[in-house]
Design a protein that fits this description.
Chain A: InterPro entries: NADH-Q_OxRdtase_suN/2 (IPR010096), ND/Mrp_TM (IPR001750). Chain A: Keywords: Membrane, Transmembrane, Transmembrane helix. Chain A: One of its GO terms (molecular function) is NADH dehydrogenase (ubiquinone) activity. Chain A: Its main location: membrane. The structure holds 2 protein chains of 2 kinds. By secondary structure, chain A is mostly helical. Chain A has a domain of about 210 residues. In chain A, a hairpin with a 4-residue loop joins β1 and β2. The longest helix of chain A has about 30 residues. Chain B is mainly alpha-helical. Chain B folds into 4 domains: about 300 residues, no CATH class; about 280 residues, no CATH class; about 50 residues; about 30 residues. Chain B has 28 helices and 4 strands. Chain B has a two-stranded antiparallel sheet. A two-stranded antiparallel sheet of chain B has the order 3-4. Classes of the chains: A mainly alpha, B mainly alpha. At the A-B interface, α6, α8, α9 and α12 of A face α27 and α28 of B.
Amino acid sequence: MEPIQLPEWTALGPALLLAATAIALFVVDSISPRSTNRNVLAGIATTGSLAALGVAVWFSMAGVGATGVDGFGVIELFDGQFVVDQLALYFMIIVAVVTALVVVASYDYMAGHTYQAEYYSLVLLAATGMATMAAANSLVTIFIALELASLPSYALVSILKDNRGSVEAGLKYFLVGALSSAIFLYGISLVYGATGYLQLGNIASVIEAGDAAAYDGLLGLGILFLIGGIAFKTASVPFHFWAPEAYEGAPAPISAFLSSASKAAGFVIAFRVFTEAFPLEATAGVIGIDWTVAFVALAIVTMTVGNFAAATQDNVKRMLAYSSIGHAGYALIGLAGLSADGGELVMGAAMMHLLVYGFMNTGAFLFVALAEHWGVGRTFEDYNGLGRRAPVACFALAIFMFSLAGIPPLGGFWSKYFLFSSALEAGLLVVAAALVINSALSLYYYSRLVKAVWIEDPVLERDALTQPTGLYAAIVVAAVMTVVLLPGFGPVVDTALEAAAAIV
Amino acid sequence: MEGVFDYAPAIALFPLVAFVVVLAFGTYLPKKGALPGIIATGGSLLLSLVMAAAVASGEAYHETLYEWAAGDATSATGVEGVSFTFGLLIDPLAALMLVIVSLVAFLVHVFSLGYMNAEGETGLPRYYAGLGLFTFSMLAFVVADNLLMAFIFFELVGLCSFLLIGFWFRTKSAPSAAKKAFLVTRFGDYFFLIGVVAIAATFGTVAFAGDDSFVTAAETAIDGGDQLFGFDAQTWVTITGLLVLGGVIGKSAQFPLHTWLPDAMEGPTTVSALIHAATMVAAGVYLVARMFGYYALSPTTLAIIAFVGGFTALFAATMGVVKDDIKQVLAYSTISQYGYMMLGLGVGGYVAGVFHLMNHAFFKALLFLGAGAVIVIMHHEQDMWKMGGLKDKAPVTYYTFLAGALALAGIIPFSGFWSKDEILYDALIVGLEEPVIMAAYAMGLLAVFFTGFYTFRMVFLTFHGEPRSEVAEDPHPVGWSIKAPLLVLGVLAVVAGIANLAPVAKLAGVDITFLEHWLDGEYGAIEGLTYTAYGELLAYETSYIGSEQVTVLVAAGLSLLLAFSGAGLAWLLYNKPEPVAHTERLGSAGKVIEDNYYQDEYQVWLAEGLTLPLARAADRFDQTVIDGIVDGTSTASLFGSDRIRRLQTGIVTNYAALIVTGVIVLLLVLGFLGGWF
């Protein structure tokens, strides 16, 4: 045993650390409100997010939440309102990694902007919300965590106050978000009405006991509305409309943050709610239909809409936004493939995909941030010939693009391959086929970008481009992780499968 | 001799090292890379002799060294799993072939010093690297213990001959000849590959030897009366055997895939010596000998082998009669001689076929190197009508060449006589029972006459008479590096026949058939790969004219008579101070023969008249239908993409409406399916 037994509440350490960092930033800001000292602010934010990452990794390695022989068991806090298990830690790691990358990259991107302290503290507050989502175990804590993640996000998207696109995107994001929250909240109340409980485990026991049988329509509607709220957070069809505009209008690091961390947090809720609260067979017995059907439909439609819309975009950021919708579709296979037996494989594959995606997609958006930092423009043509000026970053971009497209031997290939094979094993032939077709299509627009930077001749002659340290560091780290996640896939696979098995 | 086989891989690896060294550093080495090649092949020769000694002391070696792929497919005969390996099989046959190949390769390397270096050729590192890789491929092919490994090195041998035939790539003819050699042999190898796949899929193994070899499996299947792929086992063995034979016919230049070999003369003469005597062409016949047990199971395949061999022997011999280029004559003689080997193997004369393979390796290497010497002497003139009278000016070349010619013509007691006679004898005793074999025998016998004729026509035109050109009067001197290999091979061409004096043994009743004992496993051997074991598999009946002795005498007498008459006719016509061409006396037949029976023409027609239009049609199909579908898909995708893009109007109320619509649609669908209403 450990020489010192930590108190139980420290299990939420990663989330608490993020919150503490956000507050520390507020303190700095209130001491010197006009400060734009980037070194101090970004330094605090980076330290905080890396500390959260370290603690999450440490907990995960030390066996917090693991149910095995040398594990500490699943830790329940506040009468089960929060739960810290392998799943929670796994997603806290993803959130913390993306936050760290984004914060480091923002050091250069936000140079010269006002509201520096607000920016960093909002990012960390949103990250706190996302980390809390990973551990939330009751519909009400889930909703609060979700709002904690969402509200700073709205502000972050529109933080470029003198930029019309940014402000407009923020407003749209907020309006769609409000609608989605309403729907989600209504879903919570319907589920509460049907079962009388908010805590996930209790809902499940009511359903399993058959006490909710009289409210089949009510419960079904509630579940459907919950799906709606989750679809909003994960940018899945039909709640995806905010994503292209928000990602395009937002500062590029924020787009990276929202499309990677926020999406992952949305998925952890989905995984937890649908496996803990609505056990497959019992729920099907009540509402008369297997809820995976809804996810099968959503997965196929989402990946198709995302990829098809991405194919003809001219604007790189918007293309990435749609590609992010497409990837949400891939990750939804994790829920679509859940079945009475053997669901943890496909869910584990989806979780691996989210982790790899956290690196490659963040990296891709950070490259866009770099391009915006250089001021080269937004369309594919504007990116022409960048490879000659900035070979390192463009090489990293090629890695991101090919990994997103799923080209071996990059990380994106392996996670997609696991998704594909486990979908086949789960018997989801249509979904697997859609995955392949969409991946093939996605290669078209991803390679278009690689072609632009490496093969095409630049439209205008450019001067030498600067090499901002923070952005470069974040991009290179993301690229390296995208590549080395492959050899390291052994432990990652184990962790993901263990995390999935913890709740299935 | 325990443990010497541990060094067996080095036999093949020495030349590979030489290849790498020469390729990397050849330009900086003295003699431009000849020395590493000579050292490596010399080392291979020594090790091969050690292996032969080990086999002679009663051992054999069969070891899998590396498994590079394994699968869990179930074969047609129910074997679970198939694995592909690299392994060594050194039995009497392989040991013999190792010595032959490394000896010829070594001598060719030495000869090259005089033929290539002394003549100031450029690109020598490339040449020696090619020779090294060639030798490596052939040696590895010889020791291969399974069919797939054999195929891999068989292909590598083909590649190397492509590289070396096209050595003078700046000329017009050499690259074209190289391409032709590559494509024609590749055509045969295509069937070989299918055969390998078929055998692997049928028996779940590609091993040559051991209890789990495909030969044993095939025998079991035939004995058990199995049905394989809808055929009975015997027919299926015939089919797969013929597929593999496709590769043999291409490589060993048998009719109808012989057309590449005469053109392959465009390479350096040393390369021709290597190709004809010990590597490329020998590979085909060696493969038949290597998997002889498999062919022995199928009388149909054997009869086809025998008939093709007999036909090729005669067919090529007639073409050799009218050629004017000394190397062309030798090329057709090679085709013809390999026909004999196929005939010998096809009639079940395993020892006779291998015996002729060995003798031919010596005398054909000798003849080619002799021709190379003549070409050096003649300042690179190859037309025999411009030579003459070299007898006195280059005595070493003349007498060694003469020894090779006597062996080739099959004159007693030179080596070629003994092996050719044994083949014809084996064919005769089977032919007395089987009319098809009789026909093959008759063709083989007739070819003896033509062989004698064209061989001595070549000798007389080249060496006898008066010099017919200025260079012939003033020959270029040749050095020791040319003479030494000629002398070694000359001695072998004279005495190699002692290895198996079968007629003498049968007539005098003495036990001097050493090669037969060697191949029959009286020393070391692998079980099942012996002459006796093969004999038990064969289904041929044999009979004699009168007694065995009488038959031996009749066969030997007939072939000697024909050889002498052929040589005598050449003597009459061409052993004159000023010989003249007699081709026009042949009339229209001569024209047909000079044009090689229009074999090239019809093959070119096949390529241009038949394959090309077909390829064009396929191309059109690809361009229109396939590409059309592909383009259509992308057009449809992009169109769809454009539509989906328009969903995003930018107006937030539209989004809200669409979200609500989406939820309602989902609600209706799920509610309907779940029966909520």
